[in-house]
Amino acid sequence: MSRYFQNLFFQVLFSKISSYCEK
Description:
It is a single chain. The protein is an all-alpha fold. About 90% of the residues lie in helices and about 0% in strands. The protein has one helix spanning about 1-20. The protein is rod-shaped, with a radius of gyration of 10 Å.
């Protein structure tokens, strides 16, 4: 279960970084 949340966290983090870089 911990692995799942960790993966989810990295996906959200990467998504925010990507959207921030696009601006």
